[in-house]
Amino acid sequence: MANHPERVLKLNDLFQISGWQQKLKWQPFCAGVDIFRLYESGPCGPTAALLRFHPGGCVPLHAHLGYEHIFMLAGEQVDEVSKADAGALIINPPGTSHSILSESGCIVLAIYEKPVKFLAAAAAVRHEHEPPAETVLLAVNGTLMRGLELHPNLLAAGAAFIRETATEPVYRLWSIRDRHPAMVRVESGGVAVAVEVWAVPPAGLAGILLNEPPGLTIGKVRLADGSEALGVLGETILCEGQKEITSFGGWRAYVASRKT
Predict the structure, then answer these.
(1) What is the value of pTM for the model shown?
(2) Rounded to a whole number, what is the largest CA-CA distance in the chain?
(3) For 48-105, how does the pLDDT look when each residue is reduced to its tens digit (9 = 90+)?
(4) What would the pLDDT profile of 26-49 be if each residue is shown by its tens digit?
């Protein structure tokens, strides 16, 4: 039987995709992740796609119903088990599960025997800035942010990234033993602190709070646009004798200053 040329897909210079990625019609997939589907065989059949992770992009916790093959084309990503760099091939068998984070961004070729099942309450496909149903907004200002130490706790809770923003200029920030920040509301001398807003299933909030360092709690935070969200705040006593880092305007900026 002869092949039909119009049905044959050929991708040249696959490892050079970073040079021609803009020619593809990417679509939103997850928080900070785009997808370009190469083929899709119905709702239960095999699928192949290119996934483009922007810096800090993540795929929430999901289970594999069939074999999943991930071929790293550029950049790097991590899950609960290991880190993968360009050139790596990862095969996840049926019955396994994980979440994925790319701190610096990456592009992968993903081939699924069967569609994955997302275990988080957040929808796998949504428009940016659109909170999934039945969630609460949580503004995080420290190690829960994308790419930082406690970020997997957000993913495990089924949280979905909404946007980067800042608070109203009524907060001050301290570094607690250079391990995590503490944000405190003040009557005067406050600044706008950089935060990430996440949509979190209500049942996941308790797990996030239980895994936060001592002295941190969840309360209401006012954002730059005048809206309110729950947020991670520090107790005043926690900041006594600690380094004030308000002038940096956020934990990421402070951490970056330490590295340089």
Answers:
(1) 0.54
(2) 78
(3) 999 999 988 888 888 888 899 999 999 999 887 788 999 999 999 988 888 888 888 9
(4) 898 887 899 999 988 766 789 999
Sign of CA dihedral 30, 35, 41, 46: negative
The secondary structure element, H or E, covering residue 255 is helix 251-259
**DSSP 8-class letter at 130:** -
Nearest to 66 by CA among 41, 40, 88, 92: 92
Question: What structural domains and CATH numbers belong to the chain?
Answer: 10-118 (2.60.120.10), 136-259 (3.10.490.10)
| CA-wise closest residue to 98 among 41, 49, 59, 46 | 59
The 10 Å Cβ neighbour count of residue 249 is 16
What angle (nearest 5°) sits at the alpha carbon of residue 11, between those of residues 9 and 14? 150
Using CA atoms, how far residue 36 sits from 25, 40, 176, in Å, is 7, 11, 42
